[in-house]
Each structure stands twice: as structure tokens, then as C-alpha cells.
Write a sequence for this structure.
């Protein structure tokens, strides 16, 4: 277990906590986004026929469907990169933790296990668990965001 750093910014601690709590969600989103980006579908890219084609288009929107699809894919690609970076940071920091109880805490939080159940697994009181979780998240924040 490494030394606790007292000067870790509160925003970094919150970001670390959020990255750990959102881990399983982000893994699922990564799979979904990769599947969507690999599909080169052409639905919605051809111009309409009949009366709909002759109706006025909404003002202020891009009427070029190909460009709109390209922009949508760019947004999804940026989101995919953000999620992959977050998952990688969490996994890399977890691999560097040495305290077994902290590893158990972080892994269970990543899996979405309720904090009271984690306390029961560790056979500690809720207040002791809170202290242990706080220390584990501080160590993860240090490993994820602070340069050594």
C-alpha cells in the first residue's frame, strides 16, 4: 500500500470515483459503440421520394445527410475514445494496487456491488468500510492521475 496523498484535489477524487462506478457501464457502451461504428449502414442517407421530398426542410439544420452521418460518427468515435481511456486508466491503476482489501473494494465497486455488501464481504463495520473505501479511492486517484 502506497502512502496516502493528502493534497489530491477533490475534483480528481470525484472523477476517480465516477470512473470506478461507471466501469461496467462504460465497458458495455464500448461494445455498443464499436458495433455501431463498424456498421456502414446507409439508412437515412438517401433523399426522400414523393411528397416528403418536396416539403420544405427545417431551418437551421444541415440538410446534407452524409455530412450529418459523418458528424454523428465523429461524436461517437470521440465518446468511444473517452470511454476506452477511462477504462484503461482504471484497469492500469487497479493492477498497481498492492493492498488486497483495497483491490477487493475497487473490483466490487467496478462490478456495481452495493457498499453494504462489500462491507459484509470484508467483515467490517460500515464506518470502517467507508474509511477503507476512501483510502482505496485516494490510492486509485494517485495511480490514475498523479505523476510519480
Amino acid at each position: 500500500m502506497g502512502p496516502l496523498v493528502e493534497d489530491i484535489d477533490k475534483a480528481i477524487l470525484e472523477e476517480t470515483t465516477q470512473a470506478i462506478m461507471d466501469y461496467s457501464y462504460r465497458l458495455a457502451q464500448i461494445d455498443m459503440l464499436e458495433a455501431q461504428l463498424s456498421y456502414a449502414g446507409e439508412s437515412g442517407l438517401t433523399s426522400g421520394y414523393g411528397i416528403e421530398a418536396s416539403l420544405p426542410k427545417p431551418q437551421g439544420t444541415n440538410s446534407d445527410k452524409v455530412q450529418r452521418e459523418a458528424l454523428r460518427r465523429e461524436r461517437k468515435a470521440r465518446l468511444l475514445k473517452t470511454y476506452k481511456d477511462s477504462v484503461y486508466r482504471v484497469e492500469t491503476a487497479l493492477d498497481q494496487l498492492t493492498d488486497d482489501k483495497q483491490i477487493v473494494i475497487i473490483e466490487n465497486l467496478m462490478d456495481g456491488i452495493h457498499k453494504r455488501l462489500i462491507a459484509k464481504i470484508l467483515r467490517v463495520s460500515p464506518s470502517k468500510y467507508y474509511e477503507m473505501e476512501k483510502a482505496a479511492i485516494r490510492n486509485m486517484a494517485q495511480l490514475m492521475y498523479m505523476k510519480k
Observations:
- The two ends are 15 Å apart (CA to CA).
- Residues 36 and 76 are 9 Å apart (CA to CA).
